[in-house]
Specification:
Elements (H helix, E strand, L loop, with lengths): L2 H12 L3 E7 L5 E6 L7 H19 L5 E4 L4 H16 L4 E10 L5 E5 L7 E5 L7 H13 L3 E10 L11 H9 L2 E7 H8 L3 E2 L2 E2 L3 H14 L3
Parallel strand pairs: 3-4, 3-6, 6-7, 7-8
Antiparallel strand pairs: 1-2, 4-5, 9-10
Helix pairs in contact: 2-3
């Protein structure tokens, strides 16, 4: 596992974005872990978050693309932080783009914020986490309605590695099969478990044998095939 992935796991824990316990998800599933990207709230946190995304995008897709698209709302600060980090780390000027939930009919009109999409643009989509892949059903048509773009891929922060609703495939695999582009994460839950198992964090072990057993039971029921 690359060092930046280990650092990112520590960063999620330190930022109280990744927690272990008993949580009820929107899907109704009882999960032994929870990830809330809304807990990234400071300038320092967003600065670091953008750098982790930038490194993962660079390693996965390279930098031969034109636009980083962040779906409203959480994707907007992610896209801005990440294009700034790409410029800072790699000297590559990538444009950012995001959608509005409502079309604006005056001033900066339309459904998009940031750059306007052009035919031939190569686009990478950025999100926090994808559990079911449902957001792509909204995002992909928006992108393709604006211009004849090529969607290079999707980058999220954490691959939960669980099956979506009504499928045995993971959300990221389901996205690939439905839309024809790759979907990756900075880290997977397998990497999180490997790194944090019996490792003290601020004097506390987050994944001990009990939590590991709860995770194993969860993935026995909900793990992607």
């Amino acid at each position: 596992m690359q060092d930046y992935k280990k650092e990112f796991i520590d960063f999620m824990v330190d930022s109280k974005v990744l927690k272990f316990g008993e949580f009820t998800l929107k899907s109704g599933r009882k999960s032994p872990f929870f990830m809330n990207a809304g807990a990234y709230v400071t300038g320092t946190q967003l600065n670091l978050l953008g750098e982790y995304y930038a490194r993962a995008i660079h390693d996965t897709y390279g930098l031969d693309f034109d636009v980083l698209f962040g779906p409203a709302y959480k994707g907007i600060p992610l896209a801005v932080a990440t294009v700034m980090a790409i410029s800072r780390l790699y000297g590559r000027d990538i444009k950012y783009c995001a959608n509005r939930k409502e079309v604006k009919d005056h001033g900066d009109t339309g459904i998009l914020l940031g750059t306007k999409l052009q035919d031939g643009d190569r686009v990478v989509i950025i999100e926090d986490v994808t559990t079911s892949g449902a957001s792509m059903a909204e995002t992909v048509p928006i992108l393709r309605a604006q211009a004849n773009v090529e969607i290079v891929g999707l980058m999220v922060s954490l691959n939960r590695m669980e099956k979506g609703i009504g499928t045995d495939k993971s959300a990221l695999d389901d996205i690939h099969d439905k839309y024809g582009f790759d979907a990756h994460a900075i880290v997977t839950m397998a990497e999180v478990q490997e790194y944090l198992y019996n490792r003290p964090v601020d004097g506390q072990i987050l994944i001990d044998d009990t939590v590991r057993a709860a995770l194993a039971a969860y993935y026995e029921q909900y793990g992607a095939k």
